[in-house]
TrEMBL record:
Keyword Coiled coil: no
Name of the molecule in the record: Succinate-semialdehyde dehydrogenase, mitochondrial
InterPro entries found in the cross-reference section: Ald_DH/histidinol_DH, Ald_DH_C, Ald_DH_CS_CYS, Ald_DH_N, Aldehyde_DH_dom, Aldehyde_DH_Superfamily
Species in which this protein is naturally found: Candidatus Neptunichlamydia vexilliferae
Lineage, top ranks: Bacteria, Pseudomonadati, Chlamydiota, Chlamydiia, Parachlamydiales
Positions of the Aldehyde dehydrogenase domain: 39-498
Length: 506
């Protein structure tokens, strides 16, 4: 597709083009990288495995330095024209991309389940998130505004302009391999930037499927690029060091984020980082315990516990500790079923890989060795090599490793506290600060605790803290910058320019 299609007159013909594409039955399973509007093979490939059964889904091409340079240089060339496309037209293309996703919903959800392992229903939730980000950022494209500022000098006028930063490198994780691509790429494209995306090596297929739809939607060559690789060393070096890359945005572990920040600092790149979390849920003695159990249970085991803002520590007041544990256990016994994500009865799927399950196992084993009790679970499941039993741990204490490390698995660890002050001290006793949750029916306490918790998002009597209209990001080592929000959604992808005009009175 070429830039003439981006005029408003061309959108009528664009719709006809897409209808033809749908009629001819396009496939969303691609194994090549997508560079400058072409599907490109590298010199070797790597397998993408279904974590449920270990079976190979596809062999995906591995690209390196040369292909990354071509993608970046192509994106930079495309940026010169893309930045001039009107916000309304950019928004129209994003909406069309979202429409195509809806029309291919079933295939996208199935692919997402196969490569990531999550239940099919949860895959559809992820796609719903995509749609929200498409619609929101498509509309926000037309709301990039500067300011007119009163000048102290009557002979001058002051104003600010917002302009796209340029080529954006995007690095996304495996736990939400579709929605996190759109959460980052939609605002970048809406702002007038171009994108070079490196998806996680465990889950590249969903990103490649989105590239198929972007091409069908009519995005010109070079605007949206996807680089696939098993070893990220070469591609990562280009994304952080190439002088034509002006910004890097990453979601993933704090350890990797620190390396990317350090590498990007050599060229003083603009960075946005959404990193690890060690999120607490505080259950106070005045909480509605049934509400607290319902509010935390489903979220804790969502995506097998593999969410960056998942609850890592349940801090429960001593007076409601036993009641909460008993009711939480009953919910686990009634609802949690391990299995294939394509089975509608499955609630908890496998962990993503051996590294992930080994970490979960080591943290639980260490806690048990130091006196914690596994009321349920506490070991790998016989369901398969990447399945861990949904686990409820009681008598957990701060001297255990899982107090300060993300579990990233289906493990609920319960700690006791005796006072509001102790609960807040324990909650903040971490280098992380992505999200925190509290349950209380005392309005004064909810305000005090919310203001005292060191986190980018606080849920009061809820764990649902992510929306396209809310800024999301972390304090401390949980990140830099914010994504989304009713104000400034595209700020991270824009530069601010001050404009001073003299000689007004002359």
């Amino acid at each position: 597709m070429s830039f003439p299609l981006l005029c408003l007159k061309g959108l009528k013909h664009l719709h006809l083009y897409i209808d033809c594409a749908i009629a001819r039955g396009m496939t969303l399973l691609r194994t090549e990288s997508y560079i400058n509007g072409k599907w490109v093979k590298g010199k070797k490939s790597f397998p993408v495995l279904n974590p449920f059964n270990g079976k190979k889904i596809a062999d995906v091409t591995e690209v390196g330095t040369k292909e990354a340079q071509v993608a970046i240089e192509g994106a930079h060339k495309a940026f010169q024209s893309w930045r001039e496309v009107s916000p309304k037209e950019r928004g129209a293309l994003l909406k069309r991309w979202g429409t195509l996703m809806e029309e291919n919903w079933e295939e996208l959800a199935k692919l997402l389940t196969e490569e990531q392992g999550k239940p099919y229903e949860q895959a559809t939730h992820e796609l719903m998130g995509n749609q929200g980000f498409f619609e929101w950022h498509a509309a926000e494209a037309a709301r990039i505004t500067g300011l007119t500022i009163t000048s102290p000098d009557p002979n001058r006028r002051f104003m600010t302009l917002k302009q796209p930063v340029g080529v954006v490198s995007v690095v996304t994780p495996w736990n939400f391999p579709s929605v996190l691509v759109i959460q980052k790429c939609a605002p970048a494209l809406a702002a007038g930037c171009t994108v070079v995306l490196k998806p996680a090596e465990d889950t590249p297929l969903s990103a490649l499927a989105l590239a198929v739809l972007a091409e069908e939607a009519g995005f010109p060559p070079g605007i949206f690029n996807v680089l696939t690789c098993k070893d990220p060393t070469e591609v990562g070096c280009e994304l952080t060091h190439h002088p034509l890359v002006r910004k890097l945005t990453f979601t993933g572990s704090t350890e990797v984020g620190k390396k990317l920040i350090s590498a990007s600092s050599t060229k003083v790149k603009n960075v946005t980082m959404e990193l690890g979390g060690n999120c607490p849920a505080l259950i106070f003695d005045d909480a509605d315990v049934d509400k607290a159990v319902q509010g935390t249970f489903w979220f804790k085991f969502y995506n097998a516990g593999q969410c960056c803002n998942n609850i890592n520590r349940f801090l429960v007041h001593k007076d409601v500790y036993d009641s909460f544990a008993k009711k939480f256990q009953a919910m686990m016994e009634e609802h949690l079923r391990l299995g294939d994500g394509m089975d509608p009865n499955t609630v908890v799927g496998p962990l993503i890989n051996e590294e992930g399950i080994a970490k979960c196992e080591a943290l639980v084993d260490q806690a048990l060795s130091k006196g914690a009790t596994a009321i349920l679970g506490g070991a790998r499941s016989k369901m398969g090599p990447l399945f861990y039993e949904p686990t409820l741990l009681t008598d957990v204490t701060p001297d255990m490793d899982l107090y300060s490390n993300e579990i990233f698995g289906p493990v609920a660890a319960l700690y006791r506290f005796s006072s509001e002050e102790e609960a807040i001290q324990m909650a903040n006793d971490t280098n992380y600060g992505l999200a925190a949750y509290l349950f209380s029916e005392n309005i004064g306490r909810t305000w005090r605790a919310s203001e005292a918790l060191e986190a980018g998002a606080v849920g009061v009597n809820t764990t649902d803290v992510v929306a396209e209209t809310l800024p999301f990001g972390g304090w401390k080592e949980s990140g830099l910058g914010r994504e989304n929000g009713v104000r400034g959604s595209l700020e991270n992808y824009c530069e601010t320019k001050s404009l001073i005009i003299a000689g007004v009175k002359s």
